[in-house]
Amino acid sequence: MHAKGGVCAWLGFIFVVQAGSELRAATLIKARLLESVSSYRSKPGDTIQAVVAPRSCPEGSASLPIGTLLSGHLQKVRRVGLGLIHETARIELTFDEFRLPDGNRYDIETKLVGIDNARERVDKKGAIHGIRATASLSSRLGSRLALEAWEHPMLLGPALVVESGLMRFPDPEIAYGRGTELSVDVRFPESAEKAAACSLAVGEADTDPPDDLRDVVNGLPYWAYSKRQPQPMDLVNLVFIGSESELLAAFTAAGWNRALPNSMVTGLHAIRAIAEEREYADAPMRTLLLDGNQPDLTLQDALNTFEKRDHLRIWKRPEEWQGRSAWASSATRDIGATFSMRRPFGFTHQIEGNVDLERDKVVSDLQLTGCVDSVEHITRGQPRRDPQHEFRKGVHTDSRVAVVIFNSCESPFENFADPALAPQPPLAVRLVRRVSLTVRNHFLRDNIVYRSGDAARLGLLAVRGWYVRRRDEGRAEKEESLHAAPPESALHGSAE
């Protein structure tokens, strides 16, 4: 597929007219905030804007230019403040206008359905609910330490110092910076149909890429392998064409960060980030090898939780295309952190099984910056099976590799390098909030009735998780048995 000089919104319209209404069925789009939003600082009625995230449209179809905006406002904002009334924060927002760069505007109806990589949750009505800080592991450990210290009052002061030094109290307020990605259901009026949708489904009008570019892709290994265990781990699904400076400039403008190398210090920081339910923007990642080589670059896009992040490893290739450097990459999305009992022991991430979603997100993020000249999608043949190792179960792809060709990126159209978060509440407010929330939690939850109910709830969640995993594994095995000889457009592979 070849896409130049414009991009199409992340829109897949269902052309079904609702009875008695001009508005059509809801369409899921991705958009990134252009200003910060905070439950502590923002107020109802504040205006908000988000730029629509693009994806490639088929050659010759209608395309939506970079710079298409959603405009709206905050409807309701509930802050935790001192923690005397509310334990959790809440925000309700809506977008009511769709605006093209040429000035054309359309009224829309929207509902927020998700926030990528966020620790908060979005309910069925589109409201954002913040975390309960006292439910975090760091708060629970601190509470246990404080209760033990009460039996020896002389230890209370040192215990509080140790607790504050080891684990921070999570911030219960909701705070999103510039570039935060939202998933929004949008109902467009009929008059906006031509402006908002690709006229063809992606893949219906693929063009033949240059033969020399196809040769670069077909010469790549299919899998990156674990450093400690010789087994396939991540699928190679991206190729970048350009210099290292062009590549880094584009990813920096898209809001991505370089990852730190693995060490005992970064491992301890990762444990703290999990316990404190906060972000770790430059967290390390496992070393994977491509043709026996370690990655030249490791990049990630994290929001406000360590458990979820987008990340990729990049290897410089010996081949070039038209005198420009070629880089191979495997992109995956972490969707949860778990403790692994296998070697190496420690925290590891579970990845999204459909790796095409992460491939498309990377392309969309880069296109939004204006640092991309063109994108090609090249379908590879069925991968060669390793005679000693099977593919990783649970990973699925359409077998296409996205080839991103960079420009100099001297003046990015959008730059999300600085998220520009709203300032935190003053120290006095945070101290009073911590005490009030902790005392409140002791009265409400440190009793046999609540603890028994909480234990039963966790047990049910564990059983449900086990059942869902077994069900999904059964479906995957059944699908594999039905497709013993998979076509070139399907791969099988598993989670990290």
- Tell me roughly what share of residues is in helical segments: 25-40%
**Helical segment tally?**
9
Number of strands: 27
Uncertain regions: pLDDT < 50 for 5+ in a row? 1-23, 58-62, 199-206, 385-390, 483-496
* Cα separation of the termini: 30 Å
Structural class: alpha+beta
Bin the strand percentage.
25-35%
- Give the assembly state of these chains: single chain
Biggest sheet: strands, sense, closure? 9 strands, mixed
Average predicted confidence as pLDDT: 77
Count of separate structural domains: 3
Q: Gyration radius, to the nearest Å?
A: 24 Å
Shape: globular
Question: Which characteristics define this entry?
Answer:
single chain, 496 residues, alpha+beta, Lipocalin, 3 domains, 9 helices, disordered C terminus
Q: Describe it for me?
A:
The structure is a single chain. The chain is an alpha+beta fold. It has three domains: 2-131 and 171-196, Lipocalin (Beta Barrel); 137-169, no CATH class; 211-415 and 486-492, no CATH class. Helices cover 26% and strands 29% of the residues. It is built from nine helices and 27 strands. It has helices spanning 137-150, 156-166, 193-196, 211-218, 244-253, 264-275, 355-369, 427-445, 448-482; strands at 2-4, 8-9, 27-33, 37-38, 47-52, 54-55, 69-78, 90-99, 105-107, 109-115, 121-122, 128-129, 175-176, 181-187, 223-226, 232-235, 238-241, 257-258, 288-289, 297-302, 309-321, 324-340, 346-351, 372-379, 396-397, 400-406, 491-492. The strands form six sheets. Strands 1, 17, 18, 20, 21, 22, 23, 24 and 26 form a nine-stranded mixed β-sheet that branches. A hairpin with a 5-residue loop joins strand 11 (121-122) and strand 12 (128-129). Helix 1 (137-150) packs antiparallel against helix 2 (156-166). The chain is globular and about 75 Å long.
